[in-house]
Specification:
Helix content of chain B: 55-70%
Radius of gyration of chain A: 21 Å
Strand content of chain A: 15-25%
Largest interface: A-B, 28 and 33 residues
Distance between the termini of chain B: 33 Å
Structural class of chain B: mainly alpha
CATH architecture of the largest domain in chain B: Up-down Bundle
Number of strands of chain B: 2
Number of helices of chain B: 11
Largest sheet of chain B: 2 strands, antiparallel
Order of helices and strands of chain B: HHHHHHHHHEEHH
Distance between the termini of chain A: 30 Å
Largest sheet of chain A: 9 strands, antiparallel
Order of helices and strands of chain A: HHEHEEEHEHEHEHHHEEEHEH
Oligomer: heterodimer
Chain lengths: 432, 267
Amino acid sequence: MSPSPSRRAVLGGLGLGLAACPFSLGLARAETAPQAPALTAAPQAGASSASDRIAPQGRFQAGIVTPRPAWGLVAAFDVIVDTPADLERLFRRLTDRIAFLTSGGTVPELDPALPPADSGILGPELRPDALTVTLALGASLFDAHPWLGPLRPAQLTRMTGFPNDALNPDLCHGDLAIQICANTQETIIHALRDLIKNLPDQLVLRWKQEGNVPVIAPQAPGVVESARNFLGFRDGSANPDSADAALMERVLWVHDAAEPAWAKDGSYMAVRLIRNFVERWDRTPLAEQERIFGRTRITGAPLDKRDGTEADVPDYAADPEGAATPLDSHIRLANPRDAGERHLMLRRPFNYSNGVTKSGQLDQGLLFIAWQASLTDGFLAAQTRLNGEPLEEYIKPVGGGYFFALPGFGPGPDDYLGRQLIDAIGHAPQKT
Amino acid sequence: MKMLSLAATLAVLATPLAAADATLDLVAPIAEYKLYVSENTEALVTDTQAFVAAVKAGEIDKAKALFAPTRLSYEKIEPVAELFADLDAPIDARADDYEKAEADPAFTGFHRLEYALWVEGKTDHVTAVADKLEADVTELAKRIDGLTFPPAVVVGGASVLMDEVAATKISGEEDRYSRTDLWDFQGNFDGAKKIVDLFGPMVEDRDFVASVEGNFAKVYETLDKYREGEGFVSYEKLTDEDRKRLSALVNTLAEDLSTLRARLGLS
């Protein structure tokens, strides 16, 4: 494939990337209290713009510590590859599209006798709109090819059901997960349709879930509120500070000796489609809802500091019997705050609202996305502790999967997402 | 797997692909295509008569054996079904096209009889449906000679059919009672490929044609794995892996063939 004019324009404009991004982490930090979570803060009205640009290049992929915009989706694909060259071609084509979509530009005009080059839903001029496109590989891809199997990240497995799960096979797993986030719904849908149209020979869509988080009114300087989920509670209050690069090195980015070398600077992605039984929840007394979560509904303050804020840290040592924060409350089980950083993960979820079930109930829930350096210590440990929690009566995980986000890629014209893996295949002993 | 994505290549093309006043002579291939449709329609009438006779005689096994082979010639001419849309619905509509599904009195044609044969296991209540099917295909055959075949419809029909396979056939919903979907696939691919065979030689971009032909070859390679006797094994035998591959091939063909009209100067 020859480089298109738009591709050249993208490469020429790379320098603008981070500097032009109003979401730049430093800025978000400067305005917040030291403990305030920035990443899952509710987007504030008027703070985002279609010209927000998040460069896809970097040591890590964009879309992981990038502050969460209002819209996001995960689409899982099966990929058609037989050889390492096929996989390289897939990665290079995806990188090309990502570079184009995240920088924006003019949609090529074709002979009107042809189908148009672009869906047109954003008009003739694409604006970046804080778009990020993040690629993560599933275990099935590694298992399908003898030349890839030995390079599978050490903890990457096929998701298996937890006791409260009711997994729908049509909503689970995939060779490749693509997370797409942006300020608006039309931008993420545009990007998804672009990828599907341009790579029909290598990508077969398995499932897709999009969601959003509520945009709130502009807040006073220094005030940061986590966005609410569809149960009405703030979600993300205890997230580790994504602007703390040193912390993220430990919590998020893979550099363990047990991992294949190519995987350095990648991250494990746990995706869960968690249906919320909202009708039942709305019939539950508020005090019980708060005990189930361990936080107050209005402010998100922990129950032992009811007049505080969501940024306050509960003191479980002072409450060994769970008189204030029940021992089986969601936040206490999910994060007992007794293991330092070992079990931390970075949650970056979106709310989804899909339609109506056969019983005439709303199909709403959480597109749960969590990132971590160790799937075992992160999501798996947390979910294992949560098994049997009272919240289970109101939620039902129905889909998702575990994936491994590729390391980032550089601005050089020949770098691309997945290059580290392709290079590693080249160096691996070939089985014939 | 080496498949050129022509859609992707095309995305960088901004110049017209063919002169507006196409000097391409489409008369001969259109005439030949019409002959192809006519031959298949004749076969359809003959085969349907035998199928309907078996249905009306209550010969369930015989009727079941004739179902898929009879449909084959209809599936081959499906690229131009929009030229006889009023007959396509009563001949080939599916239960989902009707609000009351299988119970809907408007549900007729092949799939209503398929439901009677495989699910209800009797045919005495559908003799009127059988008669109507025979009358509809006979009417179709009568019409073909007098029907105008606009080149844009014929050429566009190839990608429309691939779209349809991608949208509502690869899932195995067409022949859901009999699981004879792979026969229909064969008919649809034959019908779309016939158009490429006839009009492909006039396309300037030979890489494009080679890639489309390569993808058809891969489709047939996959279908060949499931041949049995004169036809195919049950759709349930199709592995997930092959279904995925067929899906990717069909979508790639749909994208690529969606440019065929423009490549021939048709709008």
